[in-house]
Amino acid sequence: MMNKLLLSAMALLFSALHIQAQTISNAYDDGKPLGWGASVTGSNDENPITVTNYTEFVNACKVTTNKTIYVKGEISFSGSYSLNTNNKTIYGLPGSALVNTNRTDKSKTGILTIKGDNIILRNLTFKSAGAYDIDGNDNITVDGATNVWIDHCDIQDGVDGNLDVVNGADKVCISWTRFRYLIEPLANGSGGSDDHRNCNLIGNSDKNANKDTDKLRVTFKNCWWDEGCHERCPRVRFGKVHIANCLFSSSVVSYCIGYGYKSNIYAEGNAFTSAKAKKTPWKNYATSGSYTDYNITTKDNLGVNEEIQAKSGSEDYWIPSTDYSMSVYDASLVESVVGNEENGAGATLTINEGEAYTTGIETIAVETSLTNEDHAIYNQAGQRVNSNYRGLVIKNGKKYIQK
């Protein structure tokens, strides 16, 4: 009888909080923005609309009030659309994609440039035409935007890059996102690189101090730099960037994490699994002229020969716990958790048209171990788990989160 009551209470709470089994893919998925992006709310799941073509997509993005946009099917782009409005949530329905097949005309490359404030992208697949060094556009450019959460996206084959954060953008969380290149790079571009599968830049110039100082704060959590990524996974300037529980598995990567001018990086609990990733997990790019200051700390990573804490200049090492709290699990689990094709990084959520997925879970940490028989603990996929497990606690009709 007690079990039935607990299950009934759990179901009611899940419904009231808009939590469904499909949205939380595994016990390590918090289902909310973390770190620097923890305050992002997007549209608050208000005013939903489903779009099936470019015109509908643009019209929905132009609305100046809160708007929740569901992408259905494939939508074709010819150039990077600039999202200038605020308070938007864009969900990808299963099987959907934002696609741009232009490769050689740089003005027509790219898919989305985010310039607004308080933006959420979830479960979206971005497909471009493949890397070509012509100073084209990225699949996603977070350009001066603030409060951005990019979660469970699959970002493929950007002409210039897959996802960059530039020009004073700030307070960004990128979680459960898969980066990869499935198309062979095109040689002989005007930029000179024959293999420009360069995935992520945080800060695009050493000379951009006026815009980027004290900005470009980014958290990468549970992300996957998969096959084809050649470098910049990511490469950082200026920003305080936290890279945690991420997977680096590309067999062609020349280096993974690049620390550049004024970067302050904290990399922990990551797994470097391919031979190339293990060989060069990080590389110093703060080596030119007067642009030599940097900070980097690495801790508890798997597959590296040596952890480092290195700096040049007077700035102190940044420790994420001074700014926010975020749990990090053991690096030995990363490959199985993040690299799971069914519920790991990528567009692996089962989102249903018109349903809310992001509006608030109000959590209460349970500090003590709960062992009484008058409660049950479930992970956010709805599976009952042991008492020492992180998850939703139903106790005497009240909800708690055990962390």
TrEMBL record:
Which terms are listed as keywords in the entry?
Carbohydrate metabolism, Lyase, Polysaccharide degradation, Secreted, Signal
**Residue ranges of the Pectate lyase domain?**
44-278
The UniProt entry lists the main location of this chain as secreted
Q: Quote the subcellular location field of this record.
A: Secreted
Does the keyword field hold Secreted? yes
Highest taxon above the source species: Bacteria
According to the UniProt entry, where is the signal peptide?
Answer: 1-21
Name the Pfam families on file.
Answer: Pectate_lyase_4
Family that this chain belongs to: Belongs to the polysaccharide lyase 1 family.
**UniProt cross-references to PANTHER family, sorted A to Z:** PECTATE LYASE 18-RELATED (PTHR31683), PECTATE LYASE 21-RELATED (PTHR31683:SF18)
Protein name, per record: Pectate lyase domain-containing protein
